[in-house]
Amino acid sequence: MSRIWDISQTLRPGIPVWPGDTPYSAEPSWVMENGCPVNVARLCLSTHTGTHADAPLHYHAEGQAMAEVALEAYIGPCLVLDLTHARGRVEPGDLPAGLPARLERVLLKTCARFPHDQWRADFTAVAAATIDLLAERGARLIGVDSPSLDPQDAKTLDAHQRVWHHRMAILEGLVLDDIEPGHYELIAPPLKLAHLDASPVRALLRRSEA
Ligand SMILES: N[C@@H](CC(=O)c1ccccc1NC=O)C(=O)O
Ligand SMILES: [Zn+2]
Ligand SMILES: [Zn+2]
Question: What is this structure's pTM?
Answer without folding.
Answer: 0.97
